[in-house]
Amino acid sequence: MARKSVAIIGAGVSGLAAGKVLLEDGFNITIFDRHKTLGGIWSPDWAYIHQHTQTIANLMEFSNLHDTEAMDCAPWENIHNYLKRYANKFHLIERIRFETKIILIEKNDLKNGNLPWIVKVETANGDHETYQFDLIVVATGLFSTPEKPNFRGQNNFAGSIQHITNIKSEDQLKNKRVIVIGGAKSAIDMATLAAMHARSCHMVFSHSYWILPHKILHGYVPFDFGFTRILTNIFDPFPNAPHSAAFYFLHRVFSFVFTKISDSIANFLISKYKSDLFADEKFIPKESIRNPHNIMRITKEFLTMIRQNRIIRKLALIDEIVDKTTIRLDSGEFLQADLIICATGFIETFPFLSETLTKALVKNTTTSKSD
Questions:
Q1: If you average pLDDT over each of 208-212, 233-237, 325-329, 356-360, which comes out highest?
Q2: Structural domains in the chain (count)
Q3: Fewest CB within 10 angstroms: 9, 42, 96, 213, which?
Q4: Which has the closest alpha carbon to 57: 222, 282, 241?
């Protein structure tokens, strides 16, 4: 019997993992990726300067390949090298077609398992090619299409407006008055870097996060241990997540206990960061700490830049770009800028799916925020 053919769209973490499993199970796989190398957001094509993880060493590794370069808050280059070793070990490299953009995926009858999937691609030299596959795996992830807002009056701006993924060098920041839009992990990374190299740095964001330290108990225990184990039980249940019956029972019967625990943690964090992040009470998050989407990590360098007033935070939105360098916030304040960096997340889209497939398979599109 002929081996079934599988097209995997994306050579990032999930695409490589899917390729490894399917190849070992006897499928004939082809991995397509539009970039020059593998890794997805951990590739040089996509990573912004000084991008790094926010986890402890070895938390981001596959169970069947130890990461010999593992370190806390590892730079993207380490993750990229690890994924290359993974792809080489499991013979995936020779299966990847780089610089190949998927133009269209379609199937004439979704209910007919005997009909092939049609995949149309565009190669690096502009040629269009068509393939047929028995199965399709879409592994483009949540971070494939940048979310870059449009600002009223942006045509007046003499500077540059960039998504964070386009910031590849410290030279892009030097002697610039920088505004970073967003308040989450990538925005914190970029604001810290801008504070070190730019003329000035403002962070403009509309949503405050609960800030967690990297380590607890006087720096001896990584906080990740708690959030991969027992502390995850304080979080509200995710909709449609495979929580156990015991989990739902505990949250239904003992919800007051989880509320008490989460309130205690919130009060501890407010006290810990009172003089730095929460000196102005407007920066204290309004949303519950029991929702993990409201939680963020910060670095010591970020706190240092806050203390030295080299990062000025504004809880606001950009209302209008008034002239070549002047930005008005919806708070009524005015800022001067030469560079606006949008750390505003990504849009979950599947532009290569035919209209019929989109209606059948994709209920809606969402914005995956990493602002």
A1: 325-329
A2: 2
A3: 213
A4: 222
